[in-house]
Amino acid sequence: MGYALARAASKAGHKVTLISANTLLQKPKNAKVIEVVTSDQMYQAVRAEFPECDCLIMAAAVSDYKPAASSKTKIKKDQAEMTLTLKPTRDILKWAGKNKKAGQLLVGFALEDKNLLKNAEKKIAAKNLDMVVANKPTAIGAETSTIYIKTKTDNWQTFKNLSKTVSAKRILQFIERQ
Q1: What gap in Å lies between CA 17 and CA 105, rounded to an integer?
Q2: Considering the domain 2-65+86-177 in this protein, what is its CATH number?
Q3: Exposed, middle or buried: residue 167 (CB in 10 Å: 0-12, 13-18, 19+)?
Q4: What is the pLDDT of residues 124-135, one digit of tens each?
C-alpha cells in the first residue's frame, strides 16, 4: 500500500520520500527512496525526514516486537529447544504524533482482526492522528480490499473491493482535503 500511495502522490505532483524495507516492488518514479532493514533504522529515517514533510503516511507498521539480543554469527543447533526473548519496538507513529508541528498531517493505518473500527478510531486520539485508514488482515497480499477512512472531523467512509491503486487515490483525496 505504501508503494501505491507513493505512486499516487507522485503522479499528483507531490514531492515524495518513501522509507521502505527492502522489497522486490518497483520503486516509484520521481520519489526519493530510503531503504532500511531494522525497526531502529526506520525510526531514525522517519525522525530525520519528518521535520521537512507536510504529511506523513505510515501505511505499514514495523513489527511490534524485535529480538532482545542478536547474533552476528550463526547460532548452531546444539540443543533441542531455544527460547527467543522479544522486546517492544519503538512506536514510530506515536513518536510522530507527539512531535508533529502545526500544519503537518499525520495519517496512520490500522490492521485489525477484531473490533476493526473501534480499535482503529482509538488510534486517532492515542497517536494524535489526523486520519486513520483501517482494513482487515485479509487485505495483506490481496489484489483488492475494503478500506475504511476516518478523519478527526468526519465519520467513517467505506470503500469496498478496491485495488491498491484506486485505494491510494481515494486516501490521497482525503488527505488533500485536510
Answers
A1: 15
A2: 3.40.50.10300
A3: buried
A4: 999 999 999 999
What is d(CA 165, CA 41) in angstroms, rounded to the nearest whole number?
Answer: 27
Q: What phi and psi, each to the nearest 5 degrees, are found at residue 121?
A: -65, -30
- What are the residue boundaries of the structural domains of the chain, listed by start? 2-65+86-177
Sign of CA dihedral 165, 23, 41, 64: positive
Cα distance between the two ends of the chain: 20
Q: Which three cell numbers stand for residue 168?
A: 491510494
pLDDT score, position 79: 73
What is the tens place of the pLDDT at every residue in 73-123?
988 888 778 888 999 999 999 999 999 999 999 999 999 999 999 999 999
Query: What are the angstrom distances between the C-alpha of 96 and each of 47, 108, 120, 128, 167?
Result: 8, 10, 17, 8, 24
